[in-house]
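A.,

Following up on our hallway conversation. Structure tokens first:
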């Protein structure tokens, strides 16, 4: 029988609390940072637009909560220099992590070298100590073969994490894509993490992804350094399960 409270506590520390709406404000970011340090423990990170990195880094200094920002988001453009410049700016402003959208359109058109180059340029732009999470957009890649090959390309190009989705496409994270991605990490023998993002709002959904990671990678593998959930509404669901930690905050879908 699923111990919902234990699972919710485990998931809580793996959440990248995300706010990527079209009209975010500095006040919204202040609320996000306050929310990230819950009464039941902190989330792993906040994930925001690049222009809010400095504010969030200052607000979360000393908390252990990391700051991530998106690059080449959400469309996955193919200009490696532009993406690398965005990445350098994000890092200079104090981010701990960069969530980069792979040039998945180019990849699907057969220009895989261009996609690999973009990832490699952005990894170099991260410099030491900054984590690069590469978003594959698995709902658009669509086929199991494409998801696996894109996963391997991202890993081989320097990704520290591979991530399912932006949350902006009709199909976002799915357990099927997650399993393929986790097996790609395992088969490469790579020290690479996995992030499920897009449409994960309930504890039962999160538990399914954790179960996959436990099965494929081993029970002790899924920790904040190797496994994340990109979500906003999920936090409310977790806190509603953990006794004494109910919160009711606005949600977005990213």
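Then the amino acids I'd put at each of the 254 positions:
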């Amino acid at each position: 029988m699923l111990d919902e409270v234990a699972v919710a506590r485990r998931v809580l520390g793996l959440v990248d609390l995300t706010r990527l709406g079209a009209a975010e404000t500095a006040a919204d970011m202040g609320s996000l940072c306050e929310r990230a340090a819950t009464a039941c423990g902190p989330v792993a990170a906040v994930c925001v637009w690049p222009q809010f990195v400095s504010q969030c880094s200052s607000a979360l200094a000393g908390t252990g909560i990391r700051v991530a920002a998106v690059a080449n988001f959400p469309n996955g453009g193919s200009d490696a220099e532009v993406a690398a410049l965005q990445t350098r700016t994000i890092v200079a402003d104090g981010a701990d992590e960069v969530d980069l959208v792979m040039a998945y359109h180019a990849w699907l058109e057969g220009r895989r070298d261009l996609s690999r180059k973009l990832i490699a340029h952005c990894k170099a732009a991260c410099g030491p100590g900054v984590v690069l999470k590469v978003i594959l957009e698995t709902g658009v890649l669509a086929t199991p073969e494409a998801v696996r090959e894109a996963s391997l390309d991202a890993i081989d190009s320097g990704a520290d994490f591979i991530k399912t989705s932006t949350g902006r496409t009709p199909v976002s994270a799915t357990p099927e894509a997650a399993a393929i991605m986790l097996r790609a990490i395992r088969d490469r023998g790579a020290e690479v993490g996995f992030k499920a993002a897009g449409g994960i709002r309930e504890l039962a959904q999160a538990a399914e992804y954790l179960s996959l990671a436990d099965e494929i990678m081993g029970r002790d593998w899924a920790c904040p350094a190797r496994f994340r959930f990109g979500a906003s509404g999920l936090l409310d669901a977790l806190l509603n399960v953990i006794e004494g930690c109910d919160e009711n905050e606005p949600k977005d879908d990213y």
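Confidence is low (pLDDT under 50) at residues 248-254. Curious whether your intuition agrees with the design.

B.
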